[in-house]
Each structure stands twice: as C-alpha cells, then as structure tokens.
User: What shape does this take?
Amino acid sequence: MNSILPSRSTRPIEWMGLSALTDQLRESLMNLDVPLDYEFEVDVDQLERFDERGILRYVHPATLARALNVSKLTAINGPILEEVTARLTVGATSVQSQTEERDLNIRVSAAVKRATRSATNLPARRGLISPLGLTGYAPRRCSNGS
Assistant: This one.
C-alpha cells in the first residue's frame, strides 16, 4: 500500500515568535481575573505598507519572529491587557486597545465586546484571532534572490 505523506519541505513553517504574540494575548484574555462573560478579538496587522518614498515595506516573518522575544512580547501585550482589565473592572461593556510597534512595522489590537456579569463561577468567553497575514512568502525563492 502506497501512502502519500507530505514531505518536510511542504509543511507550513511555524514562526514561534509570531505564534507567541497571539497565543499570549488569547490566553490572557480568556483568563482575565474579572467576573464577566464576553467575546474578544485580537488582530495583528502590518502598520505601513509603503515607506515615505512609496517603496513597499515588507515584513519578513523570520526577522519579526526573532524580534518577538519575551521582553518584547511583554512590552507589546502588557499595556493592552492592563487597559482592557482596568476598563472592564470599572464597568465598561466594550473595550478596544491597540499598540503600534513602528520598529517591527506591526499594529496589535484587542477588542472586548458584550461584557456582562457572569451568572456562574466560570465565565463564558470566546475569541477570534487574526494573526499577521504572510501570504505570498516563498523562502526558497527569496533565499537565492530570484
């Protein structure tokens, strides 16, 4: 029996720093210490598509992933989580917070919607994560300059 298994080269590449960025926000928003049910959205997007001369600004996933170390993740996600927590604690039913990292050319935002007091000890929460789109990236093509 012949089976077709994907070769190592056809598997998608996982960029650990990029995954950590959205995973950290998702896990934190799912587990905020507030007695509220809510929905949330996390979005990571490229901040600028073109520079001041009109030249395309490309976000290379490997460069971005390497830059997203633990201290950088905390610097990005910390203020967003602090603002969301503070506003929900004082009674806001929806909150939106974002940060721009110009050196990385990304915008990270989080929105909490329909926050209501939970009727149970375990709040109900769900979220939508939109990571940075990296479509069109072809590492073999870029590595040799063609």
Summary: Residues 35 and 121 are 8 Å apart (CA to CA).
